[in-house]
Amino acid sequence: MAIAIAALCVVVAGVLLSSQQARAQSGAAKICVVVPHFKDEYWLSVGFGLQQEAAATGAELLFYESGGYHALQRQVSLLKACVAKGADAILLGAVSADAPDLLAAVKTASASVPVLALVNELHAPDLAASIGVDWRDMGRAVGQFLANRHPAGTAPVRVGFVTGPEDSGWSPLLEGGLRDGLRGASAMIVVTRRADTGLREQLREVEAVLTAEPDLDYLIGSAPAIEGAMGLGARTDAHFPQMIATYISHSVRRGLQSGKVIAVPFDDPVSQGRLGIRAAWQSMQGQISPAMKGPQIILIESGGPDAAHLPLSPAGLVLKIE
User: Fold this and answer.
1) Contact indicator for 102, 70 with CB cutoff of 8 Å
2) Residues contacting 235, CB < 8 A, separation 6+
């Protein structure tokens, strides 16, 4: 009986894969995209890359927002919805790297459709592929930038840090890389705040940091945190810390151009979106690639030749959210 059941499972899996391969070859594939939210401009650029590559390859996209990094159960239900809607592949920007409910949902979904991690790290053994960069390297790039400015033995400087949720699939990694890059330097993180990466939530944490430590030399923050901080800085003539973003957005790019933001590690979110669609097509053909694929990280400094030419989504981009 056990042998018969195992054989039936193999047959069913083969039928599902053959069906997905047929749709992939015909160019009629349906790809489900589940992200934490589009409140953060970074994700709009990922969405633009997804949209552009899907249009070029003839895939249909279904965009879903989970509702933020604390919306774990909503993301779990969206994975089930993608399967129910007949998706041929699922690209998942995970709200958590290790949440048991999410890992179980990925395992269940991957039994019938390839599931690929997008941007955020996800420790699920059932993934067909992972698209993104190592967020440790993003943080390390920032840490090393400051360490080069303030090496050991120079006058100490004080740093405030505002980042994403502690259980997300990127923020703890970024923080670890940042602290590693700063090791031995004269720059010291004296206050850290964490929140979901909507502008309102991050601005609240920036205000808390500046209230607690009004004499900071630097503020390192997520793109929404730096966007909010630029607004605060524009309203005062008093001392304001120099700002470094931990990832790119339209607001951060404008800050680089104006000199308000002195540096950001650039991981090309548009390219990550395009790579996600390509990997989805490959997974529908039965190609499994567990190693992470993503663009090279480049540290961009204000005033540098690349600061004005960072590819992001166009102004006014509207994504059709299901």
Assistant:
1) no
2) none
**Which sign, positive or negative, has the C-alpha torsion 251, 256, 259, 263?**
positive
Beta strands per DSSP E along the chain: 30-35, 60-65, 89-92, 115-118, 129-131, 157-163, 187-194, 218-221, 242-245, 261-266, 289-293, 298-301
Q: Which is nearest to 140 in space by CA: 169, 174, 165?
A: 174
Give the model confidence (pLDDT) of 241-296 as tens digits.
Answer: 999 999 999 999 999 999 999 999 999 999 999 999 999 999 999 999 878 999 99
- Tokens describing residue 263: 């540096």
Domain 27-133+269-295 grouped into CATH 2.60.410.10: no
Task: Kindly list the domain boundaries of the chain, sorted by start residue.
Answer: 27-133+269-295, 135-266
Distant-in-sequence, close-in-space partners of 5: CB < 8 Å, separation ≥ 6: none
Provide the whole-model pTM: 0.90
At 76, the amino acid letter reads: V
- CA 197 vs CA 97, 164, 205, 241: distances in Å: 16, 6, 10, 21
pLDDT of 9 higher than 70: no
| Contact indicator for 188, 198 with CB cutoff of 8 Å | no
3 DSSP 8-state letter: H
Residues 6 or more apart from 136 whose CB is under 8 A from it?
A: 173, 174, 176, 177, 180
In angstroms, the CA 114 to CA 189 distance is 41
Of 161, 199, 311, whose CA–CA distance to 250 is shortest?
311
The top-level CATH class assigned to 135-266 is alpha beta
